[in-house]
Amino acid sequence: MPVPTRLTSPSRGEEPAALATQIIGGPTGRFAAIGRRGWTYVAAMLSALASVFIALGVLQKNHCVRDGWGSPGALWRACYSDLPVGSGGAKGGTPWSVGGAGHDQPVLTAILDWIVKQLTPGGNALATQQIYFAIGTVIIVLLIALTTLATASMLRDTPWLAAHVALSPVLITAALVSFDVFGVALAAVGMALWARRHPVAAGICLGAAVMARTYPLVLIGAIVLIALRDDARAPLTRFLGGAAGAIVVCFGLAYAMGGDPLETYRAWWNQDAGYGSPAYLLTIAHHSLPATSASIIAVLGWVVAFMLGVYLTGRPAIRTQLAPLALTMLVIVLLTGKSMSVQSCMWVLPLMALVALRWREHLLWAGAEIVYFVMTWLYIAGPSNTPKAMPGAAYAFFLLIRLIAYVGIAWASWESSQDLPRDPADPYVPPTTDGWAHVPSGSSRARDEPVSRSPGRATD
């Protein structure tokens, strides 16, 4: 099946991409040698362009960079960020010392926050916040570049799809709100290693990703379902062993540093429904859902996501691909969760690339995200100036639009992923006997590994 032009040269095959390229000379020429420089060149180009988007994000937060992140000014200017908050308190100690991020962040994110804090020189409060934010920005640029590289490596025949990670408009608003991209980068590297048939390394990276952000558990679950369907039990066992080992090491490190890695999860269970969650609509209507009930609904959302995954992978007539399956399961988890932060949009970007989402759908979703981003801060700032604030009913409207946008990209992913090139490991082609018929959609079979490998064999 010929590869659609929109995948190999988006500026030719998709109108939004063609319009965007006008600022750099227009779409790719008819006689251009597409793909001659390989996927690594594309990944490097996209990573460089991603840094421009992060620079625009710094500009968007210029008011806070100049005057500080104090409330309510940071809310009215929509420039709030969790990063400078981590600069407070005394240096030294551990992430679980008084005021440390370990009390409300997963283990690895708390450690990253603590390391940046140690690198930040002392001084007055504003200068400390500015330097912490600058260091955090550099780290985020590098993590987005790593995510882009990992995504492009899974799309070697169509590497420009990684632009969904590097050139998404949501980078401008959401990337610098927190270190969420740390978990995204680890998850993307883990998926890339799984696609390259390194199950132990993949498990370690995805296990570490869970210790940075909990959502990669969805990706682990999707891989497990696809691997079980394809009877790839040997690599799956090694994969799960690597993931479990990474989680145990992270928990042990936290305990060794005097912390309690389970504290953040207990705190989550006792929290009320937060911003972005459908359950928060009841809070707006002054009928708040009890914290325990919201927690149970969130857990049931995970159960529903995995049950749907079992159904989709069990259909005899259709071989479900990993990327749309993972994206659909993740959207279900997001929509049933206790909160859905403005930076949650970062989680879906690599999956958007892997399902070859059309830029039309991406930009519609991104538009909903950016509008919701602004409206959220205007709503939260309400108590400081009620006449100026976003009314609860209006905020609820934009919240619903955002939820619909997520349903839309999950729905569109099943159609768009059908355009991806297929190799002997992809759906609708008889699987090989090597136990690796579950390579993510869009991945090219490793060119340095023959098709006829012995059953269950995998490299580390």
Automatic annotation (TrEMBL):
<dbReference type="Pfam" id="PF06728">
    <property type="entry name" value="PIG-U"/>
</dbReference>
<keyword id="KW-0812">Transmembrane</keyword>
<feature type="transmembrane region" description="Helical">
    <location>
        <begin position="291"/>
        <end position="313"/>
    </location>
</feature>
<feature type="transmembrane region" description="Helical">
    <location>
        <begin position="362"/>
        <end position="381"/>
    </location>
</feature>
<feature type="transmembrane region" description="Helical">
    <location>
        <begin position="39"/>
        <end position="59"/>
    </location>
</feature>
<protein>
    <recommendedName>
        <fullName>DUF2029 domain-containing protein</fullName>
    </recommendedName>
</protein>
<feature type="transmembrane region" description="Helical">
    <location>
        <begin position="200"/>
        <end position="227"/>
    </location>
</feature>
<keyword id="KW-0472">Membrane</keyword>
<feature type="transmembrane region" description="Helical">
    <location>
        <begin position="167"/>
        <end position="194"/>
    </location>
</feature>
<feature type="transmembrane region" description="Helical">
    <location>
        <begin position="393"/>
        <end position="414"/>
    </location>
</feature>
<keyword id="KW-1133">Transmembrane helix</keyword>
<feature type="transmembrane region" description="Helical">
    <location>
        <begin position="239"/>
        <end position="258"/>
    </location>
</feature>
<feature type="region of interest" description="Disordered">
    <location>
        <begin position="417"/>
        <end position="460"/>
    </location>
</feature>
<feature type="transmembrane region" description="Helical">
    <location>
        <begin position="325"/>
        <end position="350"/>
    </location>
</feature>
<feature type="transmembrane region" description="Helical">
    <location>
        <begin position="131"/>
        <end position="155"/>
    </location>
</feature>
